[in-house]
Every structure is written in C-alpha cells, then in structure tokens.
Design a protein that fits this description.
The complex is a heterotrimer of chains A (120), B (260) and C (240). With 120 residues, chain A is mainly alpha-helical. Chain A has 5 helices and 2 strands. In chain A, strands 1-2 form a two-stranded antiparallel ribbon. By secondary structure, chain B is an all-alpha fold. The model of chain B has no long low-confidence stretch (mean pLDDT 82). Classes of the chains: A mainly alpha (120), B mainly alpha (260), C alpha/beta (240).
Chain lengths: 120, 260, 240
Amino acid sequence: MFEFNKNEPLWQQIILDIQTKIASGYYTTGTQIESVRELASIYGVNPNTIVKSLSVLEDKGILKTERGIGKFVDMDEAAIEEMKIELASRLIQNVVKQCKAMGVDQILFDAIAKKEYMHE
Amino acid sequence: MMRLIKLELIQCKNQYMTLMFIVMGGFFLMGFAGYHLESVRGMNAMEMVSTIYGVTAFVFMMGVTLLCFVVLVRVFSTFASSMFNRNGYLYNTLPVTSYELVASKIIAAFIWLVIFGLVLLASMVVMTIGILLAVLMDNMDIFRQLITQVDLRYVLNRCIYFFMALFDGNGYYLFQSVMMILSTISIGYTIITLVHLPLIQQMKKALRYVVYLIVIVLMILAMEYIELPFLDTWMVLTIIGILGYGLTSYLVAHKIDVAG
Amino acid sequence: MSENNDVMIQIDHVTKSYGSTKALDDFSLQLSTGKIIGLLGPNGSGKTTLMKILAGLIHDYCGSVTIDGHTIDPYTKSIVAYLSDEPYFPKWMKIRDGIRLYHDFYTDFDVEKCMHLIKQMELDPNMSIKSMSKGMNEKFLLALCMARNALVYILDEPIGGVDPAAREEIMETILSNYNPNGLMVISTHLVKDIERIFDEVVLIKQGSVVLHRNAEELREERNQSIDDLFVEVFRHDAFN
C-alpha cells in the first residue's frame, strides 16, 4: 500500500504523487486517470480524500472532467515540463537547505550533485 | 416469522434426532428384554396381549410427563443463553421485532414437544415390535397364537379410539391442552426474562437466585389462588400466558441488555 | 467536493451506567452520511457500549439514539451491518448455515460476494463454528458483514486480532464497501494502520466525546498523525 507521511494531510501527498506520475510519463497528456474508487483503493484512503485531491488538481488546471466519463490529464508538453521543474525545484530546495546547514558551499554542491546524478 | 421458526428448529435438529433414535432404540430393547421376564414368559397369548396393552399405555403416560419436563427444562435453559448471552448478539440484531422473536421461540418449543410426543407414540409401536420379535425367537406357538387370535381390526380400533379421545367435544379438550402448554412455555420465558433485567443482573449472584425463587413462588401462588368466577383454570393460565408473552417481548425490546 | 450533510446517526445525551460506573456519560454525537468515522479510545472508554446501543443490543439507557431518523427498531437493524469485537455465532452452525441465515434475513446480502470473501480468507463453507479458531471466526463474521450492502456499518475493532498482512486486506474490503449514501463507524485502539481511511475521528474518553474533527484538518493544523494525537490525548490514561 502507498506509504504516507501521516503527520501531514494525505490529500496533499496524493496531489504530489499524481503530479509526479504525470511528470514521469505514467500519465500522458489526454489520458484518463483511474476512477475515484480505484484511486481510493490504490492509495488506501477514503474516497472523499481522493475527491478533494482531484478537485484541487482540477482547479490548478492539471486535470479536467469529462462528464459521465472521468478525469483526464489536461496539460500539454510545455505545461508538464514546467510542472516537472517546479516539482524538482521543491525537492532540491530541501536538499540545498540541509547541505547548506552542513556547510557545503555551492562549488562542492555542484560537484557532488553531478557525481551522484551520473551514478544513478 | 417462518424463517425465525425454521432457525429455531434447525438449532437442535442434530442433537434431538440422535436423541430420538436412542429413545426408540431403548424402547425396542425394553420390549425385547421385557419379554424374557419370568412372569411374562409363562403367559398364554391372551394374557400377553392384555399385558402389552397395559404396559404400553402406562409407559406412554409416564413418558409424556417425563417428556414435557425434560423438553421444557432444555427449552428454558437455551432460551436464556440464546437471548441474553453471547448468542443473543445474533438474535437481537436480526431485523425482526421482539414480539416475532419470542413468539417464534414459543412456537418452536411447542413443535418440539409435539414431535417428541409423536416419537414417544412411535416408540410404543417399536416396543411392541420388540416384544413380538422376542416371542417369535423364543416360542413359535405363542407367536402363532398371537398373530392369528388377535384381531388386527380390534387393535386398530383401540388405537383410533384413543386418538379420537383427543378430539372430544369438537376438539375443545385438545385446544385447552395446546393453550396450556403454550402458556406454560410463555410464562417460563417471562420468568427468565424478568431475572435478566439489568437491575437484577447487577445484584450479587446469591441474591439473583433468591429473586428467581421469589418470582416462581409468586407465579405458583397466583395460579393457585387466583380464581375468577366464570373462567376455568386453563383460561386463567392462557390469559397469564398471553400477558407474559407481551411482557417478555416488551422487556426484550426496551429493557434488556445482551451479554451485559 | 460533494459534501453530504444529511445526518445519519444522531445520539443525544446518552448515559449508560453499570451500577456505579458510567460507560457513557451524557454522550452526544452527530454523524453525517458519506463518511467513514473512526471511533477512537482506549479499552473501556465506552466505544463498545455505544456500538452495542447502535446495533440494538443494549436497551436500558437514558437519552435518545436515532439511525436514519428511526429509533432503534427492526428497520434500523435491517440497514445496519454490525461487526462485534467478539465472535458470536452459535456452536451448532456451520459456515454455510450462517450464510443461509444472512440470506434469509437480510435483503441486502450478496451471497456471491460472501463466498468470494470466504474463499479469500481461506475458509471452507463446510467448516463448523465449533472447530474454528477465534481468528477464523472473526474473519467469517467480517465476510458476512462486508457481503451486505448496508447503509450503515458498525465495526467494533475489525483489525483487532488480525495479523498485519490481513489488515490491509480488511481495509481494502472496508473501502470497497464504501457507500456515499451510507456511513461507516469503525472503532479501534490500533490507530496507526487504519487512520488513513477515516474522514472524521471521534475521540472518546471515559464515556464522553473529547474531540470530533475531520482527520485531514487535524493533520494540517497539528502537523501530527492521528496516532500521535491519540497517544497524546490518552497518555495520562496509560499510567492510571
């Protein structure tokens, strides 16, 4: 089952996960995502939590509803790229903060980052 | 209602069926062995026939009394456990009214009594067969006499006469008996339910049994001394039975806690 | 977001005493349709008593309780699927007798679904209640309960005596029975695994409501899991 950080609202983490899935290509432009019931089962949460996450995603313009059919990814290539950058930035922000706290300067940081990226 | 009664009957089906076979088997052996008593062996055919009649009638009467007692004891003890203990979780969450629930238990208990009554009757036949078999194996002469001399039609007549007695007076007597049995069962249930009221359940165990005793004594006194001028005993019993049924159902629905 | 605010369960000023102890003390609660509610509290806090009242097993109390606008009666019993914390099927039954019973009495019972769940739990319809362990009995009751398409589910410690692997399965079964027109009330003291499925949580302490809030809102406000909140609220009790 999907692992949550239960100290934070689950709906936010679901939004993040769906965004990540779009960014990674799991959901491509125009594909239909799973139904509320299916998503509730996938994430192991209450359907109302899913409904909230999907509604926020719709407000952000990431998903759109086709009446009677379901929800679809409503982002084009450019929008997805932009979102990818945003998600990655947020991840890196955390890392940068922690490294800075350890006294790692920018040159060292870049070197380490490059090495680790090639490693993966 | 039917499904409730069906449920009640299925409950003890296996146990009771085994019991029935044991009872009938027992009577067969009794008849078979009974023949070998000194006094019986020496009889001639006519004496043997009248002995058989006498014995079966006597045993049947005794058996009926014993049967009522045994079945009722069993019925009352299972009523308490099935309604107010853990098993009560099942019955009390079924989507039926308490009136239906209690009625089904009264009716089911009655049906079992009738079934066992019939089993007892059949046992008499089985016992007779046992005797005859013993005769056959021991003394061919007497056996031949029994078979030829005894008028089968006469035997059948006696049996039919016995049954018709039940329906004497347009079945009035039978009706009375049925009402009295149902009422007794109902009153028994009422007493058990009263003892299971939360108020009483919370008392210490010893005190609870005292209450039990008091209620039973009161019941008996009431039946002894309440004499309404124009009502027969069975009518009084029936009225108390009906009131008891109403009280039981009301208490089960509004005052009882299950497995408190 | 579809916010269904119809009240399904209304509990007003309920007090239930056992002698001098109060299992429920002026207890009031209102639960709306379309929610999965977590009833959380330590053992002896009154959860089971409350659920037994809702199921129609306890009748001697003060206050009023209604389900779908009805006082507890055969109608409420027909729309409520109750799972008690202890197994209660009579010893003489076999599994298929229990299934037939539910089929006879509950119109919302789905026999096929039940058979499917039974198989999933590795039980056999010909097994007798007598021969089954406590855990197997609990699984059987759960299967019967979840095979009903009831409006209201009252589950008393459904993951209590179950191993962690089976817990996920049970949570999935519970979620798959979710009905937006219905209500699920689940009591537990093992909050960690199951908190993710709750819409709202009700914390009960010594027969009274301490807290009744939306779970996600609580997480957002307190930056804390419901489990941690639970420990915090009841920590004092642990050392009592």
